[in-house]
Amino acid sequence: MWKASALGFMLNATVPGSIYMDLMLNHVIEDPYARYNDIAYSKYASFNWSYTRTFQEPVGIKNYTNVVLACDGLDTVSELFLNNQTIGKSWNQFVKYRFDVKDLIRPGVNVIEVRFISAISYASVQSVAYPYPVPPECPPDVQHGQCHPNFIRKEQASFSWDWGPSFPSQGIWKDMRLEAYNDLELTGFSAEIAPSDDGKEWLVHIVGSVAGVNSLTSTEKYLFVAVLEDTGINQTLDVTFSQGSTDRVNVTLTFDKQLVKLWWPNGYGAQPLYNLSISLSRDEPIWIRKRVGFRTIELVQEPISGAKGLSFYFKINGRPIFMKGSNWIPADSFQSRITSKKIKDLLNSARLAHMNMLRVWGGGIYERDIFYDLADEMGIIIWQDIMFACAMYPTNTVFLENVTLEVTQQVSRLKHHPSLGLWAGNNENEAALRDNWYNTTGKFDLYKADYIKLYIDTVMAAVYKEHPSGIFVSSSPSNAAQSEKEGWIALNPYDTRYGDVHYYNYTPGRYYVDTHPRSRFLSEYGYQSWPSTKSLVPLTLPADLFEFSNFAFYRNHHGSGQEQMNAQIRYYFNKPNASLIDPVTNFTHYVYLTQINQAMYIRMVSEFCRRSQSYLYGDDGLTMGALYWQLNDIWPGPSWSSLEYSGKWKMLHYYAKKFFAPEMISMSIEADNLTIYVVMDSDNGFPYNLTLYCFSWDSYEAKYEKLLPVKLKQQTSNLIFNENLDDFLKKANCTSREKHFLYAEWKGMVGTELPLSTYRTAVGLRKPTIKVLLAGSYPLMTMILTTDAIAPFVWLDTDVEGVLFEDNGFLFVGDTKVLLVTLRYNATVKASDIKIMSLMDLYDIYN
Ligand code: BMA
Description:
There is one protein chain. Helix 4 runs parallel beside helix 5 and helix 13 packs parallel to helix 14. About 20% of the residues lie in helices and about 30% in strands. By secondary structure, the chain is of the alpha+beta class. The site of beta-D-mannopyranose has 12 residues, from loops.
């Protein structure tokens, strides 16, 4: 049993774990996510915690020539002792350490101790000792965070972020064990998969790492075997080791491409995976395995005819693919309580929303193996940031060596995954320096030199050394090739004509986005919303659940976040008078409106990006990626996420499933024109006719109907309708923008609406009566909904866990809608378990 102690505390401790979880399990603290507990418990992060346990000398351990303490993850700065003797130190949360303990293990009881130094005091001491300030010194006050995370190689968001709390924890956050072996041990291997120069063969470069070479007393012969299971492909190699010889074994499997099947991203084909097994032996082989897949990936940056700038798109297996997806952050402040099931559930939600790319954002962690294994299975390409975000960083030798070790280990661990698509040096640090986010005026050259030392000379060098065929961009976002040309800090890192762009705009009234920059690839754009009332009730007092409460402002770590959401609500809806209803209902309405605004805005931007994929607009356009900010949450609180902390889908996630669908209709008002695009990712020709309707809000009889024959090119965006909006509305006899809205659908299939005014000014809406019938049973049910009036933003909700609706947050146009309901985890649900809300429910209360 582990014990954790500091300043009079003696806790039963858990490994893998963290001090906050130990404090909670020992009832010293309550739920760290409740109310203001992040601040209340910050003192525990300033103690230096010590983790200790005893163990009996393992039977027969003395017979082994090597005994190692393998530490898969220490958080973060610590000194380790065995029986009071130092065995080593740790400096980096993202590095695996192995310490030789052979001579220190004694008969009977042994004591192991890991003495951590508080991450906040370590970071602060480092920053004071550094010859010059490395900004930002501290996060904005609204984040209630700790200072100088950039001075410690630890999850940067653990010191607070604009969507998450400050819990700069300590502890043994990954597995720790004793390993004993004779002579040599194959400790792991890396595999790099790339096509041969002529493109006809696959080359699998395998590097096995061997421990124990330096304690050999004679020359030893071993057999190294590499097998790609179920393919007949294998290779053996005789290797000799002696003291001072290499501790690496290199083998390359070379074989005809026809012998394996291609791996494709989600929506483009299957994800066949193969076991690659390796052994190093003299007698009985012990195998270690990795699962691999075969695909080529290119980042195409080439001149565009008729426009300035360069393209920026991914080609997978030779096919240009529009990247649809989002950004991933740590799924909890306390990694040890994240289950594999939770990761699977979150990634599966991404897959169901037709995502084919997720960016693992640079302020979090390199995710655990299962994350990448699942991404392999689900066809989700990973844009992997190296863990640096929103700061300048120190560049002294010790720091850079620490980074080299980290990057080398992580790239070696992950590069074989077919899902691993691209490495990026950091999050936003090129833009931060160029645009002077941290007041670096007058010191540009100093920080630029540091930038190049860190991301180019150190990170990029380590990535390419370990993964020569990998793709690396220096920052997210960057102008990619153009940033390099401009000396790595481009004049305008947000140039729409190069690389990727992050873009946020919180001005009210952003549903229409024709003024939005049209970049080549939009890797971040987002809008906040609140998670469900249900997720907050256990963490709050009733008075907290009010949009103007101290708690609401405290929980929102994004400066002006509350004001922005509230202004957007006033612009589109008018929030009903809260004092007239009970607080929980009021807050639920508020959450609902924030989720509508988030879903609508992100829908509009995402559609805008997809529409732009085949067109140039001056030098802009040919957009080939849309990754909204952000997929998941670290705790229940207001954020940009489409999935709640629990994994529950916000309205945005249901919208993502539609706006990322392989075939999508998108209507928009561009300048004075009504435009309709059909975007086709799939190869299927779509022979359907599209119908365009004009409805009035007071009736579900269409006022006007027009059949639009669609001639589609595949894998493109197709502009199929482009007319002056006023002329069209006149023709359709729909001139009042308040009374009418437009709707387009493939007969009997998905439809999409275009409101012509705000909902605040819309005329004719009335409270509908929506009825629900459910048929069928686990795992798939059918829901039949009927309405007696048009209902915007129909929101189906239930307290039953594991229920997923085929569609949600939709505009109910006909009188009947049939939906599939998927049940997971053996859930059962009845019609009476379903709560239905639509927009007019908020207003009708007062009539
Ligand atoms: C970005 C991200 C995050 C941040 C988000 C929302 O630019 O990279 O740092 O959480 O915006 O502000």
